[in-house]
Each structure stands twice: as C-alpha cells, then as structure tokens.
Amino acid sequence: MKQETMISLQDVSFQYRNQTEPTLKHIDLEVCRGHKVLLTGPSGSGKSTLGNLLNGVIPEEFPGELTGQITINGHAVSELDLTSLSFEVGTVLQDPDAQFVALTVAEDMAFALENDAQPVSKLHARVKEWAEILKMPQLLDQKPQELSGGQKQRVALAGVLIDNEPILLLDEPLANLDPAAGRASLELLDTLAKERNLTVLVIDHRIEEALQIHFDKLVVLAEGEIVANDSPDEVLRSDVLLRNGLREPLYVTALKDAAVDLAALSDLDDLLGLQLETKAQKKLHSWQAQLPAPSAKEKGAPLLSGRGLTFGYPGKPAIFQDFDFEIQTGEMAALVGQNGTGKTTLINLITGFLKPQAGSLTLAGRPLLDLSVKERAEKIGYVLQDPNQMISKTNVSDEIALGLVLRGVPAAEQTARLEKILRVTGLYPYRHWPISALSFGQKKRVTIASVLVLEPQVLILDEPTAGQDLAHYAKMMDFLRLMNEQLGVTVLMVTHDMNLMLSYADRALVLDQGQLLAQAAPAQVLTDAQLIKRAHLSQLSLQVLANKSGITDAIGFAEKFTIHERSKDNARRA
Amino acid sequence: MHAELEKQGPWISRLSGTTKIVLLLALSAIGMVSYDTRYLVVLTIFALIFFYSARLKWRQIKALVYAIVGFTLLNLVLVYIFSPQYGTQIYGSSHILFGSGFLAVTAEELFYLLNMTLKYIFIVPLILAFLYTTDPSELAAGMNKIKIPYKVCYAVELSLRYIPDFLREYRQISFAQQARGLEISKKANLWQRVKGSSQILIPLVFSSLDRIEVTTRAMRLRRFGTQKKRSWYKAHPLSKLDWFLLGVTALLVVCGIWLFQVDQGRYYDPF
Is residue A162 part of a domain? Predict the structure, then answer.
C-alpha cells in the first residue's frame, strides 16, 4: 500500500529579496502521513528557511523569489496563504516566551480558536479536553512566568494541536530545555504523534538528543541543498554529519573509531535496542584499552570561593542556606543543574548583582562583598547568553574598548590593550566593522573580547554555545581553551549542554535546590544514575555503549574517549 | 460549563468586564458634568459599596491614595487662588464668611469646591475597586464587547503580558552594562546617569524590536487578526447581578439628566 504524501517539495528553490544567492537550491522532499522527520543542518544551511516555507511565513513575511512546487496535504501552497496554511501546519517557535502570547495557560491554549471567533462554550470545552490529554489541568490558571521551560513547551503544543492540524512543525524544541525536560518533551511528542497520526517535522541540530525518540527520516541540509535523506540508521552509518559540521552521537563516533563493522549492526539510531555481537564487543574493548589515559590536571589553588552563603528573595524561602563552593585557579569548570535551581542566582551573587544575607565571598583570598558590580567586573568577567543584550555600540572596536573608556584608562594603554585583545580573539580583521554585519557567533566573540579586555581572573559564561552548530561551537570553545591556557583565565560555564561539559570542562559542579550535589570530573557525573536523575541531566550514550560491550569502567572509557576526540580535533586543525 | 469562572471571591470580581467598563464610563461621564451635591452624594455611596466589596488592603492602595489626595488638595488650593469668586458667579449670590476683597472666602466658593471634591471622592474608589478586581483578559473582552476594535483590546492585554519579561530584560541589560563599568547609581552625577541610561536603552530597544517581530509571527501563525470578530476565553455571559447593576447605572444616569431639568442647569443652588 502506498502511503499518503503529506508534504511534497519538487525542485524548490528560494532566494531572499536582499540576497545575491539562493538560500535553498532544488529541494526535493516527500514526507508521508504519520511520519516523523528530523531536519538538521549547520547554521545557515537553510533549515529554518525550509520550515518557514512550509508554514507560510515565507513569502508572507520574508519576500523573495520562490520556484518549484510545494504541496501540503494535497493543496498547492501557492494557493494558500499563511492563514489557511495554519489549519494544515501547526508551528511551535523556538522562543517559548514569544510563543506564549496570552496571560494564562488556558487562554494561550485557546488563542487560535479565539481568533477564529469560536463560541466561548467551545473554547472552554476544547481547552479542558486538551488539558486532560496533556495532563496539565492544574496549570490552566498559571501565568507564563510561573512555568518551567518544559511546561511552556507543553502549552505551546496544546496551543497548536487544539485545532487538529495534521502536521506539526517544531523549530529547535530542545534549545531552551534542560536535558531531562528535553527528553520528556520529545517523548510527549512521540506519543501524541502516534495516537493522532500526526506528521511531525522537527528542526534541530542536536542530533544525539533528538534521536532519543524514533524518527522515520533524518534529512540533512547543507548550503541550501539536501545532502542526506534517509532513515537515521543509514545517515548515522555514513559520515555525512561530521563532514557537514554537525555533531554525531558520541557512541556512533566511538563505534566508528573502534572500526566496528557498522554494516552488521541494525538500528544504529536506537541506542537502547542496539545489539552488539561478541566480535564488535571485543573490537571496542581492545580499542579503548589502547587509548591513552588522561593525565590528571594539577589541582590549582582555590581562586574564587564562597563560604556560608545565604540568600533568599524577600518573603520567599531561602535559595541558598549556608552554601560553600570553590573554583580553582586555572580550571575550566561547568555549573550544571535543572532550570530554576539557583544557577543564575549563584552567578548574580558572584558578580554582585545580588547581595547575600550572610556569608563571605573571596577572590584569591581578598574579600569581594564590599566591591561594587563595576569593581568586581574587573576581576570577574560575565558574558550573557544573548550577545544582543550586551552590545551597546555600533562598531567592533568601540564596543570592545567601552569598558576601558568607562574606567578612564589612559588613551595609549587603551589602544595597546585593545589591539592585543583584537589579535588574540581573531577579531583584528573586523575591528572597523559595524556589529550589525556580524554573525551570531562573531557577536558572541565580540562580547567575550569586551570582557577579556579588562583582564579578569575569572570568566563566567552563560550557555556559551547556545544557538551554535558544532563547527562554530568548537571554534568558540577552542578559543576559550586558548584563553584559559595562554592568558591563564579561569573559566566557569553555566550550561545544559552535556557534550560541552564532557568535552571541555575539567570539573563539573552539580547544583540542585541550593545544594552542591557533586563536584567531580564530568565523565564521573554523567555516569552516575542517581545524580543524573536528581539534577535533570542525561546519561552519557558512551556509558550505555560501555555496558553493552562489557566495559566495566564506564568513567574511564568516557574520559579516554574525550582525550581521543580532543587529539583528533587538534590533529585536524594542525 | 463556566464552572471554572465561578471562583470564590467577592461578588465584584465575578462581575463581567463589560459591566465594569460601562458602569465606570457612564457614571464618570454623568458625575463629571453634574454639580448637584445630592446626586454626587448618592454616587459616592454607590461607589463605596463597590470599594468595600473589593476588600482591598491598605498597603495595596496606599501610594495611589496618597498621590490622589495630594493632587486633589493642590487642585483645590489652585482653583481657589485663581478664581476665589467663581462660586459667586455660578450661584449669583455672595455670603462672605471671613476675609475681604478679592480673596474673601464665600460660602458659595466653598460649596463649589465641596462639589468638586465629591467628584473625586466618588470616582477614585470606583476605579480602585475595578482596577484590583478585574482580570486584564476580562477587561479586554469587556472592551471588545462595547465595540472597541479587538486589536486595540488585545494590545492592552499583550502589553500587560510582556511587562514582566520586559522588566527582566531591562534588569539583565542594566546589570551587564554596570559590569562593563557603567555607573548609574547615586555615585555618578546626573549627566553621567542620563548618558549611561542611553547605553542601556540601545540594547533594550533592539532586543524589544526582535521580540516584537517574533511575537507577531507567533500570533499570525495562530491566525490573529484574520477575522472581523474574535471570541474571548475569559468572556462570560452577563449574570443577573450584571443586568441588575447595568439597570441601576442606567437609572442613575437618567436621574442625573432629570436633575439638570430640575436645577435648570448643572448646578444645584441651595442659596
């Protein structure tokens, strides 16, 4: 029986009006009813553009030249506008705060029906029905500020599913969630898709995380063309992901590097169901045995430490009660933990945006609490997640020099320090550029440079790799490692990205409800089942692989693998 | 069907948004025009019933009440200073209580000022009571029901929705700029602070514009603005109490107009 086609693109090309090259080139794609497709690709590959073609945002909001034929659920898109398309394709945008437009959960769920001027009785009935389906009747009166990221996403799903669109389009659904919430969200999506025979298109570059549920197709876009369109199993077997600057699931890389015969393995995308024969197990075993073990990085002297910190917002229970922590000189540390557990509060206490009710904070033995935000910033640099929130000048050099100007550093010294930092950060060629002409990753680099120019001893970064694909991400992190090694800057990163933590952090601090659950090597943290559960982290796929092949020391395996990856990176660059 | 709307609480919070808006608009219009003391006293009593039923806490309204009292006193003093004989002009008689010459205090002037104060006394509790017991979405729904275009109504609701996000964003940007070395505390002089604020405003404006663009897209993708009409989840049909209060309001307005006839003008003249 031939399956019904829900989405069909034939020789589709699209060029934005203000660009000289087409963003999408000759795309042919078919998606069957009830299928789930993961659409991936590096930044600028055109994956968001493709999504916007399907829901009608293009050409309605971004005009340009569109050729080829797009058919959705039997209708030619050229005959549909954004409104009629919205009955076919439900879209969940990446930013949950923008997606949630109403004042309460119930109203946001009802939003589309309100706009159709449906009778009020029907609004209430449908909201009730969907609240039951998504198991959230207790949330109906909540405001968006009171919800977690996972809950907001559930509301967003309800808000588009409520009028029974057959197709669901999700733009980076994992971007704002901690690993556990991300997994829960995907599982919910999977269940709904099965129950209602939905056609689902997920756009994301976090392939390992997304593949926690089964996808029928994995489509890879690069430079506006489809470079792979096959079952995830087949795509993982090939090297198309790495070749296009995308991250492969770690266990797949391990299997490939151990020269395990992938052709003999079925369902490579389903880690939990993966069957390894004795031969494959042996190969993996001997491969990992010969990998060099990590040399323990020397433990530095304590640099930044907090003792007996107590903090709570007025009228609310304390977030930190007699809390101690320590960051060591020269290390790269990761601060992890579920959303809303106090990570941001801790950073705000360190940078001086918040004042503790009790306790002490010291940097290299000198007390910090008497210093103002400005004074602390000379010793502790803080880089926000969104560079647009930091940038206030129009030109790269002015932006980077701003901190020096505001501190009244003599002009000659300003020039010298600016030039040095421009060279170290690789921004020298861009020094006269307007910031608006830079990419997201370059802007991020500018904000880091503007903080580094003050020569801080500690650099704190909030989700340094958010919104960046592997190629940009690796560049950014290698750059930070360089700063760490060359300038001796101690780095503290706040992150949900388990790969980032494993590959780049020397030590992980796991925060949960104002307590440090653990301070250990990332490989150790990510293989501790209890810790993973409590702190909303996710289990390392390498550990599952280790278990399947009888490698008892999963931590050692993960650590050796990280070293191996790093040396591969270095070799590639050299 | 509307079980979730029949929440516990004072009856005033169960009133429909439409009733509240109509009541407020109608009574403030007639109350502003009329200078009939008896009528204004009735309106004041009517307004106080609402105020009491709202069960507001003093600390909630303290700041607003102080501001309004201050403003009213200032207003009264200014009116007296600029036209101390205005009461005499209106009522056509002059009973000097004390003082002499231009600034002589007449009974007529005091009576005129009393009427003016009564207008504030009746309107302020009414506004406060409605302000604190009305859900913004219901207000929007109510505004829409009296034929205000729904896009305008939703804009009101939307701005309330994004105020907390906006404040958070402002705080974040302000912190980041302070860390860069911007001094906006009292340590800096006024000019530096004004200059410094612009440094916060630029990123704030740009990020807000971004936010607006994405939000607009999110709304369009769920068909906002495509129909002539829109329904509201928070709208609910007028209850008996709503109809009763609307009736009372209509009666009061008619009464007020009838008093213009009786008084032969807007002013009640006891002199």
Answer: yes
Q: What is the DSSP letter of A454?
A: T
Contact state of B225 with A95 under an 8 Å Cβ cutoff: no
Q: Are the beta carbons of A526 and A543 closer than 8 angstroms?
A: yes
Q: Are residues B115 and B183 part of one domain?
A: no
Q: Which residues of chain B have pLDDT under 50?
A: 1-7
Same domain flag for B114 and B243: yes
Residue A56 has pLDDT above 80, yes or no: yes
> Does residue A553 belong to any structural domain of this protein?
no
Q: A101 and B210: CB-CB below 8 Å?
A: no
Residue A299 lies in a domain: no
pLDDT band for A347, please (50, 70, 90 cuts): very high
User: One-letter amino acid identity for A243?
Assistant: R
Looking at residue B9, what is its pLDDT? Answer: 67
Contact flag A57-B217 (C-beta cutoff 8 Å): yes
| Mean pLDDT (chain A, rounded) | 90
**A391 in contact with B, Cβ within 8 Å:** yes
**With contacts defined as CB-CB under 8 Å, which chain B residues touch A167?**
none
In this complex, the residue of A103, A114, A382 whose CB is nearest that of residue B136 is: A103
What is the structure's pLDDT at A199?
96
Closest Cα of chain A to B216: distance in Å?
A: 8
Distance in Å from the first CA to the final CA of chain B? 58
Q: Name the residue range of residue B54's domain.
A: 16-135+237-263
Q: Distance between CA atoms of A94 and A172, rounded to whole angstroms? A: 5
- The two counts, helices (H) then strands (E), for chain A are 24, 20
**What DSSP assignment string belongs to A85-122?**
HTTTEEEE-S-HHHH--SSSHHHHHHHHHHHTT--HHH
Range of the domain at A418: 383-455
Average pLDDT estimate for A407-415: 92
Cα distance between residue A454 and residue A447, in whole Å: 12
Q: Quick one: pLDDT at residue B187? A: 66
Q: What is the pLDDT of residue A388?
A: 85
Per-residue DSSP letter, A15: E
* A203 pLDDT higher than 60: yes
Cβ count within 10 A of residue A206: 22
A106 and B233: CB-CB below 8 Å? yes
Q: Are residues B150 and B130 in the same domain?
A: no
Q: Residue A426: inside a domain, yes or no?
A: yes
Predicted confidence band of residue A372 (pLDDT cuts 50, 70, 90) = confident
Query: Which of A455, A481, A501 is a domain's end point?
Result: A455
- Say if residue B126 is in the same domain as residue B152: no
Say yes or no to pLDDT of A30 above 90.
Answer: yes
| Average pLDDT of the residues in A434-452 | 87
Strand partners, A65: A15
Structural domain ending residue among the three candidates A248, A283, A306:
A248
Question: Taking CB atoms and an 8 Å limit, are B207 and A107 in contact across chains?
Answer: no
A370: closest CA of chain B, how far (Å): 15
| Residue A377 contacts residue B179 (beta carbons within 8 Å) | yes
Q: Considering the domain boundaries, does residue B229 fall inside one?
A: no
Predicted local distance difference test score (pLDDT) of residue B6: 43
Rounded Cα–Cα distance for residues B166 and A98 (Å): 12
Place of tokens 């993982």: A236
Determine the pLDDT at residue B90.
Answer: 85
> Would the pLDDT of A331 be above 90?
yes
